Amino acid sequence: MNLTPLSDKELIQKYLEGNDYAFETLLNRHKEKIYTSIYLFVKDRDLADDIFQEVFIKIIRTLRRGKYNHEGKFLQWAMRISYNLCVDHFRRSKRRTKVSPTETFDIFDVLELKDENKEEEMMKSQTHQKVRKLVDMLPAEQREVVILRHYADMSFKEIANLTNVSINTALGRMRYALINIRKMMEEKNIVLQ
Questions:
Q1: What residues make up the domain containing 64?
Q2: Which residue, of 98, 128, 143, is where some domain finishes?
Q3: Residue 178's closest CA among 192, 164, 165?
Q4: CB-CB contact of 126 with 191 (8 Å)
């Protein structure tokens, strides 16, 4: 039976009825977005793998206990869990992460891109590296909003709910992030193509 066309709610119901493939379908549907948002917060592949696994263990336990209240927002709920686990990690470690040049994961590797010639690919890669470095230099609250908005594709309302701030605060953080990115570009004479 092909479970792909089923909604998240229907997949959860099938899983609770004993169909493990339904959960696998649900996981495959959302894993890239969830993993990418975790990785962009922690900047460490092994740690992102651990947190990602922890997210789905928590999801499975909540589902099995019957504590999940489905309102058509499985992805937002899963993103909140992943966000909270990332915050917990940073509270425990009390350190800021930096992108290491030896990292093997790149957000742009999971995005679907049209075929381009090598020169265009190289230019795009250089532009993405520049943007990532600028985003990494933002204050934590601004970086968080940029990651959730542009990499996790969340609305400002969803970001506000996830981070427990008003929608105006989320919008303000994005505004200041863009202002700061422009300012850093001017200071460093960075031109994006």
A1: 1-98
A2: 98
A3: 192
A4: no
* Residues 150 and 178 reside in one and the same domain: yes
The pair of structure tokens assigned to 24 is 């696998």
What are 98-154's pLDDT values in tens digits?
444 445 555 455 445 455 566 676 766 677 777 778 888 889 888 888 888 877 777
Q: Nearest Cα to 75, choosing from 21, 35, 39, 40?
A: 35
Tell me which of 67, 98, 129 is where a domain ends. 98
CATH of the domain at 154: 1.10.10.10
Instruction: State the Cα angle at 5 between 3 and 6, rounded to 5°.
Output: 70
| Tokens 């204050």, residue located | 139
What's the structural domain count of the chain? 2
Sign of the C-alpha dihedral, residues 149, 113, 45, 75?
A: positive
Residues 35-58 pLDDT 10s: 988 888 888 899 999 999 999 999
**Do 139 and 189 share a structural domain?**
yes
Q: What is the CATH number of the domain that holds 10?
A: 1.10.1740.10
Buried b (16+ CB within 10 A) or exposed e, 82-114: bbebbeebeeeeeeeeeeeeeeeeebeeeeeee
82 Cβ neighbours under 8 A, 6+ residues apart: 34, 37, 38, 51, 52, 55
